[in-house]
Design brief:
Elements: H1 2-8, E1 12-14, E2 20-22, E3 24-27, E4 44-53, E5 61-72, H2 80-97, E6 100-101, E7 105-115, E8 123-134
Amino acid sequence: MEEVKAELEGYTSVNNAGEYLHFHVYPQNLPAKKGKNDNEHFPYVLVCLDEEQINGEVSDNLCSVYFLVGVIDKNHNNQGHFDVANVMNRLERRFLSKRLVDSRYRIAFPLSKKFQEEDTWPKFIGGMSTLWTVEATEIEEDEYV
């Protein structure tokens, strides 16, 4: 989360009123809606843990993390997916150029991106799926091991 916040610091999306909006970064889920038409959480990046694969006692674990990007763009030119793509490209560049995060999480390949297939105008959504190696848990040895 902190890496995403740092990468998007100063990066904005422009709404139809010409206001520059900073991206919100949320862990795992969007905040609860305050009403039917509550769109306060836009634009956002959701950082979600998907699954972790434990590969043995001495092998590193493999953790799947996806980033979900959402923007609202009411412009009828239907180009909001470019904002989504720009954010995913920034995150990709960040993680592939400095592959180690917090001195312990390393991004691995493959990395994949996907845009929504349905027409969801004025909301545009896209996601980036990543894999990370995580150091295996050390076995605590005692007199019985």
